[in-house]
Amino acid sequence: MPLPASSNLSYVGRLRYIQSIHEAHPLKGPDYLAGRLLPTLERWRCRLLPRKELHQLQSQAFYYYLLARTMHYDETFTSVLARGARHIVNIGCGTDPRAHRYADALAAAGADILECDLPPAIERKRRMARSMPGARHVEYLPLDLHDDAWP
Q1: Rounded CA gap, 37 and 43, in Å?
Q2: Whole-angstrom Cα distance, residue 29 to residue 2?
Q3: pTM for the structure as a whole
Q4: Distance CA 100, CA 2 (A)
Q5: How many CB atoms within 10 Å of residue 33?
Q6: What does 72-120 look like in DSSP terms, one character per residue?
Q7: E strand or H helix that includes residue 142
Q8: Which partner from 30, 68, 85, 148 sits 20 to 30 angstroms from 43, CA to CA?
């Protein structure tokens, strides 16, 4: 199922994966599982990314904003689990593999996660994440907040 033309899910997923395989600490992104949410050919393109293209991505502020945002949400995620949350709702989850990266923490806390996004995006994620760690702790809900039927 193709994603909507206006979607930036593939771009963000691609950046997440690139940060995890091409950067060194402290700029190494934690989203190594984002590659499993990309089509195989795209995953290989990221692995074989020319240095010039990597430098171009690194020259954009969004590249580092995404990394900072990821780290902030990781801290929030682990913090609420540590405080006893048993259910987490991730609205606009896109290509975020956090639920799978923290599969052990979710299991230890007895927690589960509901991931929500636009129907084509959530269907693609559901299909591609089937074999990822912690898949049994993740439920999916197609959700379009712009739908007039939404209460």
Answers
A1: 9
A2: 26
A3: 0.88
A4: 23
A5: 22
A6: HHHHHHHHHHHTT--EEEEET-TT--HHHHTHHHHHHHT-EEEEEE-HH
A7: strand 138-142
A8: 68
CA pair distance 19, 26, nearest whole angstrom: 11
Residue pair 129/104 in contact (Cβ under 8 Å)? The answer is no
- pLDDT tens, position by position, 35-46: 999 989 999 999
Token pair for residue 59?
A: 């020259």
Burial class for 129, CB neighbours closer than 10 Å (0-12, 13-18, 19+)? buried
Residue 96 has phi, psi (to 5 degrees) of -75, 115
Q: Which element (helix H / strand E) includes 141?
A: strand 138-142
Which residue is it, tokens 């290509």? 95
Q: What are phi and psi of 20, to 5 degrees?
A: -80, -25
Other C-beta atoms lying within 10 Å of the C-beta of residue 18: 24
Of 128, 127, 121, 125, give the one whose Cα is nearest residue 143.
121
d(CA 64, CA 42): 21
Q: Give the distance, in angstroms, between the CA of residue 125 and the centroid of all CA atoms in the same chain.
A: 9
**pLDDT digit string (tens) for 112-145?**
999 999 999 999 999 999 888 888 889 999 988 8
